[in-house]
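Field reference: "sequence" (input) and "structure" (output). Example, Oxidoreductase:
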Amino acid sequence: MLEPAYQADVVVVGAGVAGLSAAHRLSSAGVTTAVLEAAPCVGGRMATEKVDGFRLDRIGQLLSTAYPELASTPGLDALVLRPFAPGVLLHSDGRHHRAGAQAGAGGARGALHAVRALASAPRPGALPRVRANAVAAPPRVRAGAPLGTAVDQARLGAALTRIAATPAERLLRRPEAPAAEALAARGVPARTIDGFLRPLLAALLCDPDLTTSSRCADLALRAFAAGRLCLPEGGAEVLPELLARTLPPGTVHTGVRVTAVSTTSVTTAEHGEFRCRAVLVATDARTAAELLPGLRVPDFHPVTVLHHTTDDPPTTGAALLLDADRGGPVAHTTVTSRIDPSRAPAGRTLISTTVLGTPPPGVDTAVRMHLSRLYGTSTARWETLAVHHTPEAVPAMRAPHDLRRPVRLLAGLYVCGDHRDTSTVQGALHSAHRAAAAILSDLGAAGSMHVADPLPTMRRAA
């Protein structure tokens, strides 16, 4: 039996998706857990702003139905994924070109119902917990440039099929180099790299220069080829909110700022000391390093997301639109309300656009000019809803990159987050999975714990 001085088995610092999913695994194993979050709400960088009935993601990282942790994480059973149209839409020389649509559309949770692809009849499939969309007819597109010759396109299709079937662990054993160098070294035609793989990987990795480890790039391509790019219905904040709501009552405490940690206690700024048997730091990389001196702080990729609305929506349907020519600041853009109607009021259109790297001066004007070319329509009357710039949006994964950075620092002190794995939602959830397993192994069988004095309870967003 535990001493009354202990207030929980484990204290988790940080209520992002990593901390919340780890808390779920610990609680499910009978380990009493307290999650402390400095902010007034859960979610961390997975935040969604509400403006006049619109739901606007601050970063809006792309998800994939092929992320295995989305299927296995406790608490995400009610998550609904909204798929993009198969593949991507490339803009080059004033034309749209469909690419990657021959890739598989594997699912993440077991077959619940079919998914309607653009301009095709419903087909049985395993895009589980994916809600089909009613989309307008896609724009006229043509094959060929910027993907190269018919032979180049056939080779690309075969390569995507192969990588979709390759086990992830085999990809992690490949020689490592910066992604841009690795693509060239593998004999991929320059036109295919520049016209398709470079803009696609930049969108998936938030890395316009492709300095990311080739192993991480391979994992991103595997997820693209094996599943469908998608968005969570209702906004990015839905993931952490689902996790928080399904934890035992009183587990999550917001407005509690942690100033120091040890193997047996957590010190807070205004709520005293919280004693425990183990501490899991699940914050962003910079905050984690402040609490755990000696922890490496990675470089970061800045991301700027702009949201616009218009009464005259573009005709690109539910496609993810990339600029193969790289003729402006836009990395990718989409008519978000065609993918997830819940993100806009009825009858309104939401267009979300991502700019990678340092944004140009007058970013909204520059983006509008670029969007006018990409969509082939005037953007002069579009209304700007929000411009969100996040300097440290995504931890960089430059080669060499350890995709399995240790989560156990010493007995009683652990760390997880996207900076310990891959810089994706899949990576954050997987690092939490590893951390929870390490904690359970070290603690052994859980026992009943003394209930802590009440801390501020979680305040839910309206």
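The two ends are 41 Å apart (CA to CA).
Residues 425-443 form the longest helix (19 residues).
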